Amino acid sequence: MMQFDSLYYPYASRRNAVYGRKGMVATSQPLAAEAGREMLHKGGNAIDAAISTAAALTVVEPTSNGIGSDAFAIVWVDGDIHGLNASGYAPKNLTIDQLKAKGFDEMPTFGKEPVTVPGTPAAWAKLSERFGKLPFEELFEPAIRYAEEGFPVSPTLGYHWQSAYKTFKRVFKDDIFENWFKTFAPNGQAPQIGDLWASPDHARSLREIAETKAESFYSGKLADEIASFFDKHDGYLTKEDLANYEPKWVDPIKVNYRGYDVWEIPPNGQGIIALMALNILKGYEFNEKDSVDTFHKQIEATKLAFTDGLEYITQQDKMDVSVESLLSETYADERRQLIGDEAVDPSPGEPQRGGTVYLSTADEDGNMVSFIQSNYMGFGSGVAIPGTGIAMQNRGHTFSLDPNHANALEPGKQTYHTIIPGFLSKDGQAVGPFGVMGGYMQPQGHVQVMMNMIDFALNPQAALDAPRWQWMKDKVVQVEPTFPDHIAQALQRKGHVIERSLYPNPFGRGQIIWRDLETGVLCGGTEPRTDGHIAVL
């Protein structure tokens, strides 16, 4: 039995961890968590709760995700672990030569070019078909209700919505972006905190997906509307691209860290970065969390792992190094030898060659889900499909236009993906799902919260509350406003370039459910950095 030493973490907001027995849903928005709880109350399982929560999040947190998102899931059912990769592919008509001929030296951030096939609706259908208990349509009732009747805009949502609107108003000039403003700022402004927001078009799209088990999105009415919009604007995404899409069941990858198996989805996701960093760090003993030596080694190990990730990660069958070689003990030992007393500029090693929402759910039968979906960079590409409430993702932005790079753009290829669900088990038993959303912060957040719980015995809430750091590039490390100043100064003396952020937003927003292996009691934590909520059955 894991004994947590701390109820609180002294540098952050003092929020209690939440305990439950029969079921739990943890996510970044209260209404979405309650949608999942509603499914558990109806007799659904953790998978039903996850799908319902995810669908609701597309409505109540559109600043981070939507129907046009990608998704990944790790599912624990009946003692077995399963992975689902529902990230989309580049359109078959999109090539490096084509973009370079149009004057692009790198993948654009917004517009039609970075739009890839969304995988989220297909993820919902696949999860329900294989593991769900309740009828698929029933899972969408809360989300549709929120979209039709409206809901009050919560504080974090309102802040990010206002910020996105101001940026888009300044940046979006092409007529392809016109419908984003009609959809998300219909009265010439973004909704304020506390305003009631409704989206009947969004409700219609969710109902189409629910009634057709997502077929409408890929080969039916919604697919026609999406394809027609891109055709009108000389885009690249076609109905054929949508119709050919299929999520993939995958075997999650793991490392053992101090007796716990830490699981991630294999590439094209960046979860392997967290595993590589933990593989390096397990060669040390850490007796004190808030010490300069602990933070220094965490940062250096993460830098080394991240540099390898950025060099090698892409669609797995197109990588020229294997997952096994990146996670080998021998390679971890080699990388560990590079960590000294001073900060270094990282470079890739030579292994043997070959704005996101997160949610976690658990039910009384021991089933658990770690699920993440995202448009990327908040609202995504800035492209919204008229009459649907659907904002399209911009995942293609992470492709390289260098044909020699591992993650070079190719038609039908999956790009390096930032969103990663995590899962923890011990001795063949499920401990629970965890995740920290937020771009390239995600594997860094995974490392920090896992060490907070496993090495330093913080409970899930305290592990999430603890001030974070984020490696940016070279020797540059950003720290949160609450990060201890004396440690920041000591890290600076070790050669780290410390930048203190004025805002908590860049440091991720996570949730954790931890199951006691003896009693089955669930302990949940959610972020003080968002409108987080834990619903308990």
Automatic annotation (TrEMBL):
<keyword id="KW-0378">Hydrolase</keyword>
<dbReference type="InterPro" id="IPR043137">
    <property type="entry name" value="GGT_ssub_C"/>
</dbReference>
<dbReference type="GO" id="GO:0016787">
    <property type="term" value="F:hydrolase activity"/>
</dbReference>
<dbReference type="InterPro" id="IPR052896">
    <property type="entry name" value="GGT-like_enzyme"/>
</dbReference>
<dbReference type="Pfam" id="PF01019">
    <property type="entry name" value="G_glu_transpept"/>
</dbReference>
<protein>
    <submittedName>
        <fullName>Gamma-glutamyltranspeptidase / glutathione hydrolase</fullName>
    </submittedName>
</protein>
<dbReference type="InterPro" id="IPR029055">
    <property type="entry name" value="Ntn_hydrolases_N"/>
</dbReference>
